[in-house]
Design a protein that fits this description.
Helix 2 packs antiparallel against helix 3, helix 3 runs antiparallel to helix 4 and helix 5 packs antiparallel against helix 6. The chain is an alpha+beta fold. The chain folds into 3 domains: about 100 residues, Tetratricopeptide repeat domain (Serine Threonine Protein Phosphatase 5, Tetratricopeptide repeat), CATH 1.25.40.10; about 80 residues, TolA/TonB C-terminal domain (2-Layer Sandwich), CATH 3.30.2420.10; about 110 residues, 2-Layer Sandwich (TolA/TonB C-terminal domain), CATH 3.30.2420.10. About 40% of the residues are buried. The protein has a 4-stranded antiparallel beta sheet with strand order 8-15-10-11. The chain has a 3-stranded antiparallel beta sheet with strand order 5-4-7. Strands 1-2 form a two-stranded antiparallel ribbon. It is globular and about 70 Å long. It has 11 helices and 15 strands.
Length: about 350
């Protein structure tokens, strides 16, 4: 209970401003509270939403429970009360209780405003897409730790696109402590895979082994951009260009400063900032013959609204189109995006990439 209250007090100090991103000390949102004790599920639900906007998670949880116990005058409040309770429990580290609430939401069979889609998405990943930056996260298993290394170089295109990520290589470390026979097992794209190979070949690993023995290992090469001004992060970009086709090239990738969210995502963004979590979205689309993204699909998102927000962001990007024999053609592209803290730590990014990459 002490940890629960501490989490609530920390969450209550944070808020999200549409104009400036994260802020502190803003006045709380005024919540209209009826003079009489509400009996309506809808009244309790509206009160709970108001408390949630104030980041008063304990009172919000109480009202969501009352909504479930009310007269069910608005049936859809049941499924959404379970989902909002799940978010609150997840915020306090009570992941088993959060999973239970999402399962309760599933049992209602009510998909009002995509409620079941949200519940199914959460349960599919069992909360793994919501990671707390303050928690120590382990590096990928089997990654060899070099005793001496140089930073990898960025390609101009990757820097323009503000691509950050970790390339995972597999190979062997020989008796001299050098990595040999390296190949890419987890790709980031935009030329960074090749730069990772170049860098890793120069790294020194240890301890050295006696000849003729060699040690199989994975080597992780991280690419980071300092002084990020946006809460959006691109952590992967891949093109599905057929043989003989020159892939598209990024020419413009603008990121909003501050929150960078539309009105529909502001409440969700406020909650994520308050509880210190990240949002993710994987998009697939076509870079058409004019270099414009088109035909967006959203194979995965931590919440449906983040797929929409990521689509709005990438829809403004521009490319030099793919060509076959000098003729522009349309080519599919896949991107992985994260919204949250401006500084994306290496451990957090690697685990997010593992979550978002299909098995």
């Amino acid at each position: 209970m002490r940890e629960w209250m501490r989490a609530l007090s920390v969450a209550g100090m944070l808020c999200l401003s549409q104009a400036h991103g994260v802020c502190q000390d803003n006045p709380p949102v005024a919540v209209h509270r009826p003079y009489r004790t509400p009996q309506s599920s809808l009244e309790h639900y509206r009160l709970a939403e108001g408390y949630l906007q104030e980041n008063n998670l304990q009172s919000a949880a109480n009202e969501f429970r009352e909504a479930l116990n009310g007269n069910q005058d608005a049936p859809w409040t049941a499924v959404w009360a379970h989902i909002k309770l799940g978010i609150i429990f997840d915020a306090s580290g009570q992941h088993e209780r959060a999973v239970n609430e999402y399962r309760q939401a599933q049992r209602t069979g009510d998909n009002t405003n995509g409620a079941l889609d949200q519940a199914n998405n959460y349960l599919q990943h069992a909360g793994a897409v919501y990671l707390t930056p303050a928690q120590p996260l382990a590096a990928p298993r089997g990654c060899a730790e070099p005793i001496h290394k140089t930073d990898p170089e960025y390609t101009e295109e990757a820097r323009l696109a503000e691509l950050e990520g970790t390339v995972v290589l597999s190979g062997v470390i020989d008796e001299t402590g050098l990595a040999q026979n390296l190949h890419v097992t987890t790709s980031v794209g935009l030329g960074l895979d090749e730069k990772a190979l170049e860098a890793a070949k120069q790294w020194q690993f240890g301890p050295r082994l006696e000849p003729p023995y060699k040690m199989s290992a994975s080597v992780c090469v991280a690419f980071r951009l300092p002084s990020k001004q946006s809460r959006w992060h691109l952590i992967g970009m891949q093109f599905d260009a057929p043989p003989g086709v020159l892939r598209p090239v990024v020419t413009s990738a603008l990121y909003p400063i501050g929150a960078g969210l539309g009105p529909q995502a502001m409440e969700e963004g406020r909650v994520l900032v308050a509880i210190g979590r990240l949002a993710t979205a994987k998009l697939t689309f076509d870079v058409d013959e004019t270099g414009v993204p088109a035909n967006f699909r959203i194979p995965n998102a931590s919440e449906p609204v983040w797929g929409s927000e990521a689509t709005a962001l990438v829809g403004e990007w521009r490319f030099k189109p793919a060509t076959r024999n000098g003729i522009p053609i349309s080519v599919p592209c896949t991107v992985d995006l994260v919204w949250g803290e401006k500084e994306l730590t290496g451990d957090l990014e690697r685990q997010l990439h593992d979550v978002m990459t299909p098995r």
